Amino acid sequence: MFDQITTQPSLDKDSFEARATKLRRELLECQFAMVETGYPVLIVVAGLDGAGKGVLVHRLNEWMDPRGIETNTFWDPSDEEEEHPFFWRFWRQLPDRGRIGIFLGSWYRRPIQLRVDEEINESSFETAAERIRVFERQLSDDGAVVIKLWLHVSEKTQRRQLEEKAPREEQNPRISDRPYELRGKYEPTLRASEELVRRTQTLQCPWHIIDGEERYSREIAAGEIILAALRQRLQQSAPPTPPPELPPPNDHLAAVPLHKSLKRDEYREKLEHYQARLQDLAWRAYREKRSLVALFEGWDAAGKGSAIRRVTGAIDPRLYKLVQIAAPSDEESAHHYLWRFWRRLQRDGRATLFDRSWYGRVLVERVEGFASPAEWQRAYAEINEMERELSDHGAIVAKFWLHISPEEQLARFRARELEPHKQYKITSEDWRNRDKWPAYEAAVNQMVSLTDMPNAPWYLIPGNDKRYARVRILKLLCRQLEEALG
């Protein structure tokens, strides 16, 4: 792929400035037009050391309005970043809708480095490439414009550039992301880079290989590629993402044994027992750097809040974070729907408990029409991919659906209306949701059919008896932690 690069003709300063003046005006026009579309733009600037990536990024900020650009440079991962899944640090830095994010370093740097250092084999390298494809596809499906630029230079040019940079590096060690650990490794770096570029070349997110030998030429080439990509998106009314075909779901809820119950004395004994076990297991997970991600979903008035309180009552407050999910804020709506969940994940060894979760996309957003059919239908695969990323990093993922009968829900609604200290729990929206029980039931059954995975299983909890539901959740949490921790 790299040996087919077309050599760019050299430009003198006057020719460059003449073309740059026109290009800058056109880029600014497209940048401002993109704000109105609400589509974010991601510009990935990658390439060999000494190819002029930093200079190009500086030029792009000069040509366009920097107030609408977020430039992200990724140095070696911090301790906090190491204690999260690989893509966590990139999800957190995604630009708002209508803004431009420039990624220098990006998600390509680490796989190449590991491959050059022979720290990963062929299979692991392909896994890294596949996850990059998944990540970029998710962003593109959501409307993002992903522009990937690879700056290529010869070994001779690289050596000259690094030698010129070396004195500045000695004066300021932060001038580069790492102190040229690839010096003398041009050929293996080139092979690994070309292979990763080839494996991540897709129709949705194509690579643009730029001859980086001459500064003026590469900057004009990069600017024209960006301009063409922005114009193409501006001519599209929406990204072409047809909804996938989904198989019919099984009736999982019909099999939930709602008659299960516990007597008060037995409940107290088992509650104390499993809370004590969960406390010990939470500390063991902390010592072994294994995080827990637990999701609590269920019908209105199914007892999620009281069940979560029994879980948090068993875990040291320093070891967990309870995240309550409501309608997205303006900031959250300005990003991919998974963004607000990725950024709330806790470090290795700690628990993140979600009171409602990313499954809102295939439940309330599906039923209420807040997400289009294409959006919620592709969300099943996106959710499975996210949970696989979590579990492969070492997280223990547990998902609970608290199920009750329509009759039990009605009784609890009426009880809430009569008890002054519980009246705040019942709203007109709860009654409206109840009228849509069949639609939600179908959505839940399809959710379980398509996202119940060995690495992230669904537990359907009989909730007509709250005592039984609480103990059952604690028991299953303990069991999953024990199996994961050996």
Offer a concise description of the structure.
One of its GO terms (biological process) is polyphosphate metabolic process. By secondary structure, the protein is an alpha/beta fold.
What general outline do the C-alpha atoms trace?
elongated
Question: What is the count of DSSP helices, taking H or I runs of 4+ residues?
Answer: 19
Helix coverage percent:
40-55%
N-to-C series of helices and strands:
HEHEHHEHHEHHEHHEHEHHEHHEHHHEH
User: What is the name of the CATH class of the largest domain?
Assistant: Alpha Beta
**In this structure, how is the largest beta sheet organized?**
5 strands, parallel
Number of strands: 10
Give a description of the structure.
One of its GO terms (molecular function) is polyphosphate:AMP phosphotransferase activity. Residues 160-181 are annotated as: Disordered. This is Polyphosphate:AMP phosphotransferase. Keywords: Transferase. The protein has 486 residues and is an alpha/beta fold. It has 2 domains: 2-234, P-loop containing nucleotide triphosphate hydrolases (Rossmann fold, 3-Layer(aba) Sandwich), CATH 3.40.50; 257-485, 3-Layer(aba) Sandwich (Rossmann fold). It is built from 19 helices and 10 strands. The chain has helices at 13-37, 53-63, 79-82, 88-91, 109-116, 122-141, 155-171, 186-199, 215-234, 264-287, 304-312, 330-333, 339-342, 364-367, 373-393, 406-418, 428-434, 437-451, 466-485, and strands spanning 41-47, 69-73, 100-104, 145-152, 207-211, 292-298, 320-324, 351-355, 396-403, 458-462. Helix 1 (13-37) runs parallel beside helix 9 (215-234), helix 5 (109-116) packs across helix 8 and helix 10 runs parallel beside helix 19. It is elongated.
